[in-house]
Design goal:
The protein is an alpha+beta fold and 359 residues long. The protein has one domain: Chorismate synthase AroC (Chorismate synthase, AroC fold, 4-Layer Sandwich), CATH 3.60.150.10. Helices cover 25% and strands 24% of the residues. It has 7 helices and 19 strands.
């Protein structure tokens, strides 16, 4: 089996390359009768698209969604939903200088070793442009979650050494889109933007961290033992380009807590079962417990630098490649909707799978 399909009950299969004709996705398993807001899908794509600000790539793509099947009169039919976004500003010639060279820390060498051929045009299938399909299908997953009252949002919580220290439960979700870096704190966002702009001037790049919060998720979803909820969330996040780390709940800080400190004791309030603390991040035993689910995703700095770098070519000879082209100095701001989309796909999939678990 190849790795272009994700999910089991709510399943997506994606296709397309960075400089090919289009990027697309087929969703299989979306229930019939779901109201589909096509403008919402487009709005989600607009949050991901290139050229949105001075701190993103200058590639000029409208990323207009085309729905080919599965929806009629703004309602899902229960049949496969196919969607595409056509590439309109592809400039394959921009990559002619690396046709036979392997860019440092890119997928050029590994793709060549796996397939015996590599698409040098922006990385082909390994390009982050593939995430268009994730965001489009994730938008429909979000609409499904909204039907059940489940909400989620993500935000930039760190760029390089600039961090937002506000606890996730106190973050104002309505402030995420107030600035180009998608940090819900004005002062911290300004420092992040300055750091990115400085790196861009130097021909360098920066990494960062995105935090995601899911609320109103019912208790009981997740499929032990191999499809635990946090395991599928981890796989979803680690499948995103440039992601190097995932942690949920107390994460790596867990090692600094004793068992007594880390235990989330239950209590009942107004007839609802809750935990006094939420070190577990809303998941216990691989199953949601009804508390907010929160996790962090770490992104590395973009590997393409606007500087000359030494590497090797297909013949194993040392060559110098010129740093040029249209690239993000920091992918984190545009990755926020991607993280949200993948989280929505996981929760939607497990929500539907749970409906087959018991009478």
């Amino acid at each position: 089996m190849k790795g272009n399909t994700f999910g089991k009950a709510f399943k997506i299969s994606t296709f397309g390359e960075s400089h090919g004709k289009a990027i697309g996705v087929v969703i299989d398993g979306c229930p019939a009768g779901l109201e589909i807001d096509t403008q919402f899908i487009q709005d989600e794509l607009n949050r991901r698209k290139p050229g949105q600000s001075k701190i993103t790539t200058s590639r000029n793509e409208s990323d207009e969604i085309e729905i080919l099947s599965g929806i009629s009169n703004n309602t899902s039919l229960g049949t496969p939903i196919a969607m595409i976004v056509r590439n309109k500003d592809a400039k394959a010639k921009d990559y002619d200088h690396i046709k036979d060279a392997y860019r440092p820390s890119h997928a050029d060498y590994t793709y060549d070793q796996k397939y015996g051929i590599k698409d040098h045009r922006g990385g082909g299938r390994s390009s982050a442009r593939e995430t268009i399909a994730r965001v489009a299908s994730g938008a429909i997953a979000k609409l499904l979650l909204q039907h059940y009252g489940i909400k989620l949002f993500a935000y930039t919580s760190q760029v390089y050494d600039v961090s937002l220290n506000t606890p996730p439960e106190l973050v104002d979700s309505s402030a995420v889109e107030d600035n180009v870096v998608r940090c819900p704190d004005k002062e911290t966002a300004s420092q992040m933007i300055q750091a990115i702009e400085q790196a861009k001037k130097e021909g360098n790049t920066l990494g960062g961290k995105i935090t995601c919060i899911i609320t109103n998720c019912p208790a009981g979803i997740g499929e032990p033992v191999f499809d635990k909820l946090q395991a599928d969330l981890a796989k979803a996040m680690l499948s995103i380009n440039a992601v190097k780390g995932f942690e949920y709940g107390s994460g790596f800080n867990t090692i600094e807590l004793t068992g007594k400190e880390h235990n989330d004791e239950f209590e009942s309030k107004d007839g609802q079962v809750k935990t006094k603390t939420n070190h577990s991040g809303g998941i216990q035993g691989g199953i949601s417990n009804g508390m907010p689910i929160y996790f962090n995703v770490a992104f590395k700095a973009v590997s393409t630098l606007m500087q000359d770098q030494t590497t090797i070519n297909k013949d194993g000879k040392t060559v110098v490649i010129e740093g040029k082209g249209r690239h993000d100095p920091c992918v984190v701001p545009r990755a926020v909707p991607i993280v949200e989309a993948m989280a929505a796909l996981v929760i939607a999939d497990h929500l539907l799978r749970q409906k087959t678990t018991k009478l």
